[in-house]
Amino acid sequence: MTSGVARRLLAESLGTAFLLAAVVGSGIAAQRLSPGDAGLQLLENAVATGAALVAIIATFRHVSGAHLNPLVTLVDRHLGNLSWREATSYCGAQVVGAIVGVAVANAMFELPPLQISAEVRDGAGLLAGEVVATLGLLLVVFGLARSGRTSATPFAVGAFITAAYFFTSSTGFANPAVTTARMLTDTFAGIAPASAPAFIAAEAVGAVIALVVVRSLWPGAAARAPEGIAPQEVAA
Prior knowledge:
Layout: H1 3-33, H2 38-60, H3 70-78, H4 84-108, H5 124-146, H6 153-167, H7 176-182, H8 196-217, H9 231-234
Helix pairs in contact: 1-2, 1-4, 2-6, 3-4, 3-8, 4-7, 5-6, 5-8
């Protein structure tokens, strides 16, 4: 593995770890700070996650593109900016980072680092919410990339995810690495293992729709990696 590839994989892993630490840690803090007020807990969780996303993407985007999400990586692969080897490496780094982030968040609040969530999240409405959240997120990411406005990406993604906590029925997981890792915390942000496969399938549906829409709306756009890394830099 070249130093450039190792650097990008480390950035993806660290960035995703910090994202999950923010999602899970702020959820635990919200439960403790605002017991009995689910609406306020969700607001605290959403604001913390959105703010963390802005900082994380701004920090890592010029190293790896700050995908932080296997679906962003796979759509980017289908748009021609990554090889399959690079894409699978990115996805592995994201999942590992997500699990580490959950373990760190649990440990910070003196909980067992890895737990199995008992939070059942099912039903057609929630799955529809995941399709919508994933579709919207990927349109934001690739719409900005293919129109050459990647400097706005950290703020646009943070804003979209903050909003998605409230306007989608599922609270907008929109990320298979996030969904997988959230099985390992029995807290506000958790999802039961039995519920996760359907969530991930719904996210994949949203990603396929997003790929079609991106190609339709920006058919002549120059290929760019999501956060402004040129294809030749990604492949270096």
